[in-house]
TrEMBL record:
Superkingdom classification of source: Bacteria
Protein name: DUF3806 domain-containing protein
Lineage of producing organism: Bacteria, Bacillati, Actinomycetota, Actinomycetes, Streptosporangiales
Length: 130
């Protein structure tokens, strides 16, 4: 198991916020609400069709890192390596921001970065009651 490179993840998250501000005139402030803004940017990127592979890879890294950082900050989570995939663990529940970002950026219907963040406390609550 490899420890996640937190410094690199934070750099990617900051770069996401910078690029969204300069290229899309939207502000990502690290809040849960900002994930809805990032969803809008992702959907706008897909307006002309699927992203080219290099552009998909870039935005997947940026959106995944930003989403994970928000989950860490807002819910007191921790970046972890889960079977070779980066995840955020909160109260024993694992969330996969890079997987969700890829699904959003691939145009999968019904996928949202904001909904991942909204669902996490519900899942934690249900798990605690089980």
């Amino acid at each position: 198991m490899t420890a996640p490179d937190i410094e690199m993840l934070d750099h990617l998250a900051a770069e996401c916020a910078r690029l969204v501000a300069t290229d899309h005139d939207r502000r990502l402030d690290g809040s849960l609400a900002s994930l809805a803004e990032l969803d809008e940017v992702c959907w706008a990127l897909l307006a002309d069709g699927p992203l080219a592979e290099d552009r998909l890879r870039l935005w997947w890294q940026l959106a995944g890192a930003y989403t994970g950082r928000v989950l860490v900050q807002e819910y007191g989570g921790t970046w972890i390596d889960h079977e070779g995939s980066l995840a955020v663990e909160v109260s024993g529940v694992k969330a996969f921001p890079f997987s969700t970002a890829h699904r959003v950026l691939s145009g999968e219907e019904g996928k949202s970065l904001a909904s991942l963040a909204r669902a996490l406390p519900v899942i934690i609550d249900r798990q605690g009651r089980s």
